[in-house]
Each structure stands twice: as C-alpha cells, then as structure tokens.
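User: Let's play a game. I give you a shape written as tokens, and you guess the letters that built it. Ready? Here's round one.
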C-alpha cells in the first residue's frame, strides 16, 4: 500500500516537471538555423521587444578550388500574423542583425539564406576568382530576444500565447493550472501552411491576391487570373513545398501580367517595311608558329555587328605544339562594310624536346551563311524576376543582374551552352529600366528559361555563327 502511494507521488512529480519544462520552452526565444535552408517561425511580443540574430562564419568552396571563410547572407522578413502584405525585411550579412517588434503583436518571421549567386555578388569586391559553388561548412545563426518574447514553430495566436499579466482582459481568461482539463490529451491538428498568391503588373503594382491552405508536401500553384485585359509574362505555374512542421517554401508566390490597353479593339495590320541589306566583311583567321611558320588559314564572312572570335582548340591533338594565344579577339563590322580587325592570328610554339611531325588539316566545312539580324530579330518578354546576362553563352562572369520582369528585349541569335550541359542561350539587346535607371544591353547572352516562351519563337531564331 505504501509502495503504491510512493509510485503515485513519483508520477505526479514527473508530470509537474514535464509541465514546467514545456512552459519554460514556450517562454524562451531559442531558435537557430544555417545557411543551407530557410527557417520560418512565429513570435509573440507581449511588450515592445527586439530580436537579435547572431551568426558564425562558414566555409565556402569556389569553382576555382579556393575555400573562403565568410559570414552567410540572409534576408530576414517579418510581418504581423496573417498580413504578408505588411511585411518588412532586413539584410543579415554581418555578425549581427536586429528586428524591432511592437507590443502585443503576433508575428511570422522568415530567415531565407542567400543563393550562391547572391553571395558571389556580395563578395565580388574581394576579388575572389571563379564563383561560389557550395558550402563546405554552412554558417550558423542563433536568435535571442528581450521583452518576454515567445518563439514557436507553430503560429502563436491569442489562444496559444502566454497572457500578459498586466493587461486586465487576460485576467478573465487565465486558465486554472489545477483544473483537471490540463491533464486531458488533446489531438494535435495536422500542420499546414497558408500561402499567399499575388498577381502583379510588370511594374510591381498589385492587381489582386488570394491565399491557399496547404498540407505538408509539394504542391503546384496555378495562376488563376484570366480575362482579355491581362496577359501573363511569367510562368503560370510555381511549386511550393510545405514541411512536416507547416513551413512553406517559398511562403508566397507571385505571377506577373501585362495590361492589354484596348483589349477589345480591332487590330489594324501594319505593313512590314522591307529591310535594307547590311554590308558584310571578310575576316581572315591565321594559325602560326611563333617563328612565323603558317600552319593553316581560313576566312569568315561577317555581317554588321560585334563578334568574339576565339581559338577553337583544333590543334590540341598535336602533341608537339603549345598554344600561346591570344585566346580571343573582338571584331566589329561597321555599317560601311569596314572591319576593325581584318586579320586575327593565333600563335603556337614547339614543346621543348618534342619532335615535329607533319600536320594534316581537315578543311573546315563550308562557311555557314551569315544572317541579317534585321531579317530574323524577334521581340521577347522577360519572364523571370531577374536576368543575368553574360558575354558568352554559358561562360564568362555575369556582368550584372537586372530586375526586369515583363520588359521587352530583342532576340538576335541562339547557341548551345559552352558548358556542354545541353541548354540553349539567346543573344539579346534592349534598354532595361531597373531601380530608376535605364541600362543598355548590347548583344549579351542569357538562358532561354529567363524569357516567356510564348512571347517569341525559339525555333525561328538563327544559330549564331560565332558559336557553331
């Protein structure tokens, strides 16, 4: 009988300790994460408070083989619970960052790590060669707070947040800690996430929005805005993944449209003017040894424009020769038919101790007929939020990134990626207005995935002769 009573007392003590531990966790501000994945959590601030984020450096691996120890980059976004349109954000790229919270407000907070491209752009001033490839050891961040903040992986609504003892209204709803119902198990509802779907014009103006409640898993979100007045300029499909804890990645999606003024007006055909033929020029390409001995020569016919003529590795199989350079030339054909560099020469030198052998050159195939840009140019609409033009298809450093969704560019030609990954790139030009400034893009390259595929015909775009 005594042993049974002792067991009951022990169980009651263990249960009391468990309840106190749960209460301690609910009242704390313990939250942490790494640069390898986003984290979303919820905060209730019973009084004006500040969240302080602190991070430790991690190690990044670059394509040039370097290991760089740097702080991670994050975007911290927060908004009153259920009001994403009122969101605010701050960049977290150094040792610390802070977020101010208003009294008596429930917040949703999201920490999104920078992509490798964003980190590379941030650290470009350091002069690191190559590009960041991956985290070897991701940077880690941790959160502390003041003012009695409560942090939770699940939404903190007035029903779940700890009452403010200084607010009169809470006294009438404070539960009795000794009531039997505290020990009654309540089924835990399945986690879910509310994802907001925004419909915007290309200038960022909000047309309308909706929300969808999603269960854990991956979901395909389809743009539902229809009618003759709006035409989509971005993909009409986006995927959202909801974790088992009810965290959505991304937390919201946006579809961009352009407004069709006079959508019901009858279109009047406009005659297409006959293009004026552009003059061309012949450029001679020579391959020589450093002593002047000529190995081979060829001629290319180019139309008006600027081209990069690069060594194509055709003599790499000759073991007794070493390529000396230059690696490439920039050649411009002007409107009057003149050319900036009529002859380009690539030089080679014998390897030390190597025995020369006859060189048998297979003649190059007949020159590909050059195209007149004015005959084949097409207009296309940018469908991605940002584009990253490059000087060559798939190679070279990104010159800049432009937020230009919905703006139009001229497509000149296409080529397969020089990275041999099978992707198609297009050469574009245009005047892009970003952040209040107009930028001139002149014959730079982007992936076809950055353009709205319905705004132009990729099959009709000619192959670029500089990248056969």
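Assistant: Ready! My guess for every position:
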């Amino acid at each position: 009988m005594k042993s049974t009573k002792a067991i009951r007392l022990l169980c009651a003590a263990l249960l009391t300790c468990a309840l106190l531990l749960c209460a301690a966790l609910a009242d704390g501000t313990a939250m942490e994460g790494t640069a390898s994945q986003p984290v979303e959590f919820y905060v209730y601030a019973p009084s004006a408070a500040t969240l302080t984020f602190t991070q430790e450096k991690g190690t990044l691996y670059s394509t040039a083989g370097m290991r760089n120890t740097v702080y991670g980059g994050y975007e911290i976004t927060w908004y009153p619970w259920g009001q994403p349109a009122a969101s605010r954000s701050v960049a977290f790229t150094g040792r610390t960052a802070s977020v101010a919270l208003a009294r008596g407000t429930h917040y949703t907070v999201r920490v999104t790590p920078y992509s490798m491209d964003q980190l590379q752009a941030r650290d470009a001033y350091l002069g690191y060669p190559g590009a960041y490839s991956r985290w070897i050891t991701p940077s880690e961040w941790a959160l502390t707070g003041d003012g009695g903040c409560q942090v939770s992986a699940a939404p903190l609504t007035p029903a779940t947040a700890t009452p403010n003892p200084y607010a009169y209204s809470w006294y009438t709803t404070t539960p009795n800690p000794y009531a039997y119902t505290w020990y009654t198990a309540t089924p835990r509802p399945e986690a879910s996430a509310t994802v907001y779907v925004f419909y915007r014009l290309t200038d960022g103006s909000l047309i309308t929005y909706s929300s969808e409640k999603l269960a854990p898993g991956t979901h395909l979100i389809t743009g539902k805005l229809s009618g003759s007045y709006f035409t989509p300029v971005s993909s009409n499909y986006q995927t959202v993944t909801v974790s088992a804890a009810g965290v959505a990645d991304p937390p919201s999606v946006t579809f961009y449209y352009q407004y069709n003024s006079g959508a019901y007006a009858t279109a009047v055909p406009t005659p297409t003017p006959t293009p004026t033929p552009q003059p061309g020029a012949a450029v001679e390409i020579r391959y020589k040894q450093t002593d002047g001995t000529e190995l081979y020569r060829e001629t290319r016919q180019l139309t008006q424009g600027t081209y990069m003529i690069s060594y194509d590795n055709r003599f790499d199989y000759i073991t007794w020769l070493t390529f000396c350079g230059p690696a490439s030339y920039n050649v411009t054909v002007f409107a009057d038919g003149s050319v900036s560099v009529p002859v380009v020469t690539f030089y080679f030198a014998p390897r030390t101790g190597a025995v020369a052998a006859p060189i048998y050159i297979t003649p190059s195939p007949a020159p590909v007929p050059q195209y007149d840009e004015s005959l084949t140019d097409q207009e296309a609409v940018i469908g991605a939020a940002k584009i990253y033009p490059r000087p060559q298809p798939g190679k070279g450093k990104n010159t800049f990134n432009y937020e230009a969704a919905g703006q139009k560019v001229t497509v000149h030609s296409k080529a397969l990626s020089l990275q041999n990954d099978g992707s198609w790139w297009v050469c574009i030009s245009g005047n892009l207005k970003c952040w209040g400034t107009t930028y001139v893009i002149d014959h730079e390259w982007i992936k076809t995935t950055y353009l709205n595929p319905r705004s132009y015909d990729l099959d009709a775009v000619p192959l670029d002769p500089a990248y056969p």
